[in-house]
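tool_call: predict_structure(chain=1)
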Amino acid sequence: MQKGCKKLSKIRIYMDTCCYNRPFDDQNQERIRLESEAVLLILNRCQTGEWEITGSDILDFEISKIEDPVRRYKVNSLYSLHRQKIRIDENIRRRAIELQNAGFPALDALHVACAEVGADVMLTTDDDLIKFASKSVLNIRVKNPCVWLMEVLK
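tool_result:
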């Protein structure tokens, strides 16, 4: 830590809906199992207060649309660990439109716009989103939870 600097704040994490769903996907595939473990480890660190998880109106919306009531309940139980929620306001709407105009799908654009406002990193298991985000000018890093976890636990 540099002289005169205050203690660094906790890492603020934004996970999109696919991350919250990952532990309830078919665990027979190794990648899904690894991503599930990473998501659960990250949420555990948030639950203990080491890191902070951020929610959003768009996460509320997407989770509410999960058709299977048992899965929706399970996903909501993980999602309920958030301490902060990003409300979609006019600035976030404008940013989401900019992102859509740059090629992001509408819901992904809203997730990224929310994450830019209230997090230090956005996590997703969506390879297309990660690839597109890596080629875009964003105010947030978009990472796979396994990759990000390996970076921060070095």
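agent: The first helix runs from residue 17 to 21. Proceeding to next step.
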